[in-house]
């Protein structure tokens, strides 16, 4: 809950950096690597292609073991930005 008593939502957005097209997005009330993995899988299915490189923020969902393992099976390069 925020200071106004409203629940906070987390948006997962996947953007193709070359075209700037949003290829996947979903909103959840909580944050988890399993949810992010689901968003990635749906984006890949919708676009009918897997990315060659994944560049991400350094958020906690990107550090979940099942997601990390899935991403390394999927692509050759995973880049995390550091703040």
Task: Describe the protein in words.
This protein has 83 residues and is of the alpha+beta class. It has one domain: 2-Layer Sandwich (Nucleotidyltransferase, domain 5). The chain is built from two helices and four strands; from the N terminus they run ββαβαβ. The protein starts with 9 loop residues before the first strand and ends with a strand.
Supply database-style keywords.
single chain; 83 residues; alpha+beta; Nucleotidyltransferase, domain 5; two-stranded parallel ribbon; 4 strands; 30% helix; globular
pLDDT < 50 runs, ≥5 residues: none
- The order of strands across the largest sheet is 1-2
- The radius of gyration over CA amounts to 14 Å
Secondary-structure element pattern, one letter each? EEHEHE
Give the count of structural domains: 1
The residue-averaged pLDDT reads 84
CATH class: Alpha Beta
Provide a count of the helices.
2
Based on Cα principal axes, name the global outline. Answer: globular
CATH fold field value: Nucleotidyltransferase, domain 5
In terms of structural class, how would the helical and strand content be classed?
Answer: alpha+beta
Strand tally is 4
Pfam family, one: rve
Protein name: Integrase core domain protein
Domain Integrase catalytic: 1-83
Organism: Acidithrix ferrooxidans
